[in-house]
Every structure is written in structure tokens, then in C-alpha cells.
Specification:
This protein is of the alpha/beta class. It contains 9 helices and 5 strands, in the order βαβαααβαβαααβα. Strands 2-3-1-4-5 form a 5-stranded parallel sheet. The structure holds BIS(adenosine)-5'-tetraphosphate.
């Protein structure tokens, strides 16, 4: 069983690469960003609360995303493996994920981080903002808030996986296919 955490700042290409990895390795793709956006689209109470934070470039509370992942793991008991995209984003979420995996007799195989410079992230997200309709992609200040939220709260999660000897980093600049080739080689080596 392969269970991968795909890591990186907003706009690093986690969503883009997850779609390809999921197909190649037959994994269940769990994106907390997508799950939160479905809650917003459905107009649930959780979605309304999450929207305020996401539109401001802030992280939503740990309990909310941990609960969503817990449900999805239970809904996919027969999966051959999982790719976690955008989760965990805090050390508390990483600890919770380890507990959930253990409860289900599973373990994280490795964390793969996509390395991309802040200027490239801003360029990509502003470009996506022209068509995505996502409020958090609409202006440079907000995008930089997301990147700084990542540096303050999410980057320490890499240390958590380094301590377990499960951290690998991959260059996230280049064509989508080139990056996918490098990611596939890394996954084979896990
Ligand atoms: P997410 O939905 O997770 O997404 P993201 O950070 O915007 O981007 P991703 O890295 O997936 O980039 P993508 O492939 O799309 O988060 C949104 C918000 O949800 C967060 O800010 C937070 O508020 C909330 N949230 C989510 N999870 C949470 C959690 N666990 N805890 C708390 N809050 C949480 O790529 C971006 C763009 O780059 C695309 O347009 C793509 O086409 C382009 N691109 C991709 N690869 C490229 C390449 N190689 N070259 C050029 N462009 C490329």
C-alpha cells in the first residue's frame, strides 16, 4: 500500500500532480482544499465558516479538516492507497493523520515536497485567478498572505516527517510532465 503526502506552498502544483499520481498508482485522492470548496458549494454551515477564512488566505481550524479526512478514510476502506493533497498543513494535523492511519492499520510511506519560489507561485496563482473564479487567487496581497501562512504554520510540518526519515523534496519548476517523471521516480523509491 502506498500512502503519500504531497507537500508544498499554495500553487506549487499539488493538485495538478495529484491527479496524475492518482491515475498511475490507483490511489484515492484526498484534497482538503477540494473538500472545503465542495462544502462551500453545498452551502453547509461548515462551508460558510470555512469560506470566510479561505477568502482571507487563512487556514481553517485543524478540527474541521481532521474530521473531514477521518470520514474519507472510513469511506474508502478498500483503497489501495491514498494521496493526501494539501493535508496535513500544521503539525497538529500531521500528528492526527498518524493516529488515524494507525487506527486503520496503515502508515504514511513518505512526504514529497514540491519546491517552488514565491515569485513563481504568485505568477501561477494570478494566472489561475483569471479563470478559476477562486476569491483566494484574485489579488497579489492575498496570495502572499497564503504563502506566508504556509511559511509560518505549514513549513514546520516538513520537520515532522524529516524526523521520521520520510521527507523527500522534488523541484517543482519545469513542465508538468518533467515534474511528474521526477515524482514517479521518487515514489518508486519510497
Ligand atoms: P488548496 O486547494 O489546497 O490549494 P492551493 O494551495 O491553492 O494549490 P495547489 O498546490 O494544489 O496548486 P495547483 O496544482 O492547483 O488550498 C486552498 C485553501 O484551502 C487554503 O489557503 C486554506 O484556506 C484551505 N485549506 C486547504 N487545506 C487545508 C488544511 N489542511 N488546513 C487548513 N486549511 C486548509 O497549481 C496552481 C496553479 O499552477 C494552477 O493554475 C496550475 O495549472 C499551475 N501549475 C501547476 N503546475 C505547473 C507547472 N509545472 N508550471 C506552471 N504552472 C503550473
Amino acid at each position: 500500500m502506498i500512502n503519500i503526502v504531497l507537500f508544498g506552498p499554495p500553487g506549487a502544483g499539488k493538485g495538478t500532480q495529484s491527479m496524475k499520481i492518482k491515475e498511475k498508482y490507483n490511489l484515492v485522492h484526498l484534497s482538503t482544499g477540494d473538500l472545503l470548496r465542495s462544502e462551500i458549494a453545498a452551502g453547509t454551515e461548515l462551508g460558510l465558516e470555512a469560506k470566510k477564512l479561505m477568502d482571507a488566505g487563512k487556514l481553517v481550524p485543524d478540527e474541521v479538516v481532521i474530521g473531514m479526512i477521518d470520514h474519507k478514510l472510513k469511506d474508502n476502506k478498500d483503497a489501495e492507497g491514498f494521496i493526501f493533497d494539501g493535508f496535513p498543513r500544521t503539525v497538529k494535523q500531521a500528528e492526527a493523520l498518524d493516529s488515524l492511519m494507525e487506527e486503520n492499520d496503515m502508515a504514511i510511506s513518505g512526504m514529497i515536497a514540491l519546491e517552488v519560489s514565491e515569485e513563481e507561485l504568485v505568477t501561477r496563482l494570478l494566472e489561475r485567478g483569471k479563470t478559476s473564479g477562486r476569491p483566494d487567487d484574485q489579488n497579489e496581497g492575498l496570495i502572499r498572505t497564503r504563502v506566508h501562512e504556509y511559511e509560518n504554520k505549514t513549513a514546520p510540518v516538513a520537520g515532522y516527517y524529516k524526523e521520521q526519515g520520510k521527507f523527500v523534496s522534488v523541484k517543482g519548476i519545469g513542465s508538468v510532465e518533467e515534474i511528474f517523471t521526477n515524482l514517479s521516480e521518487t515514489i518508486q523509491s519510497l
